[in-house]
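ok so i was messing around last nite and threw this chain in just to see what happens. nothing serious, just curious
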Amino acid sequence: MRRSVITATGSYLPERIVTNAELAEKVDTSDEWIVARSGIKQRHIAADGELTSDLATKAAQAAMDSAGLTADDIDLVLLATATPDETFPATAATVQKNLGITRGFAFDLQAVCTGFIYALATADNFIKAGQVTRALVIGAETFSRIIDWEDRTTCVLFADGAGAIVLEVSEQEGTNQDRGVLTSHLHADGRHHDLLYVDGGPSSTQTTGYLRMAGREVFKHAVNNLASVVGEALEATGLEPHDIDWLIPHQANKRIIDSTGRKLKMDPAKVVVTVDIHGNTSAASVPLALDVAVRDGRVKKGDVLLLEAMGGGFTWGSALVRY
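result:
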């Protein structure tokens, strides 16, 4: 059976770090208020002129370097982002150019915070169909560009960053002991648009707009939807919660992460948490957290990883992967 194996990871964070104390000087908030409600202590913000493509390029290059690959080895550049450089062309094509890749194809995918899970599943299916041998799958965001910095309910949560993986075909036995993507599950429900959206766009207002969120309602849906989609991954494979070595969730809110871990009865030490230092980087958060855990030695070859996320749309999804 053709499997899609993660052979390398990479990430990039902008140099500028914004602490809760710095935000408290601009809006009516405090470090205690932010930490209590989100677990976030700091976040990275892109520099003036630093684009989503710049972040994505650096994360992708780090993944390629880790895998020992060159531009000629990549068939697909798939970028999950809700903050592209331009309306068109696809930011993935800019990343492709930056990396010196002149073959294969490149496109963006937009599912907001679930974007990386959607992109992973999409690349996996291209590989299983025999159309791609090796893909760069990237999540990258400059959410600071669509934040209303006077809205204390959102400006304290979101941040910028990029994470990437190399996904490569491998012939496996077709069992749960295989390395690679074992199963993925994607969902969307457009009825909840008004709970998490950006109030602008080229077709509606001809402006970029700002992110708007009904935090309490989003929290409720996130807890329920993530528990459901995690259950789907386990049911599809016949694995049990104790078979999961690492839960690598979307880094939106520490309380949501803790709730998902409790539902799985997972040891908190087996849950990768970076929201405290990264904030919510939307589509970048899962690959960023994965890269952190790979590079610090927690995630090892053969480990079973459960990746999950939920975002505006609503969109939500999960992927069960043996690293």
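not much to say yet. The chain has two domains: 2-171, 180-322.
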